[in-house]
Amino acid sequence: MDFHYDDQNIFAKILRGEIPNSTVYENDHALAFHDIQPQAPVHILVIPKGAYMSLDHFAAHATPAEQAGFFAAITAVCAMSDVGSGFRAIANTRAHGAQEVPHFHMHILGGRPLGPMLAM
Ligand code: AMP
Prior knowledge:
By secondary structure, this protein is α+β, with helices and mostly antiparallel strands. The chain has helices at residues 10-15, 55-61, 64-80, and strands at 23-26, 30-34, 42-48, 87-90, 106-110. The protein is 25% helix and 21% strand.
């Protein structure tokens, strides 16, 4: 797989401080912020600070420290959010996954029953 990263994507601009965001957690390797168009009472995006365009790009090429930092952010977000009754983690990927922003991000959705995984 040839992973091409476009550094003009909106999350890259957030990481460079060019666009504001509503941060809920940050560490050396990851940033978590509220989705601008929430689809559930909890809708937080967790992104790595490194230039990775997708989950498979991140899984294949991120360093162990970057991967640990990313999952530390997931841990922190879940601990501070109303997801004790359950949540859904989604990583939309490329065209068939309906990925809009080509910087790897995990949606953390919860705060209400979310229904079936896919609408048919
Ligand atoms: P997707 O790439 O389809 O997995 O989803 C991208 C998500 O990014 C959508 O849920 C958008 O609402 C969200 N989004 C787009 N721009 C911003 C922004 N400036 N701040 C926070 N969330 C955003």
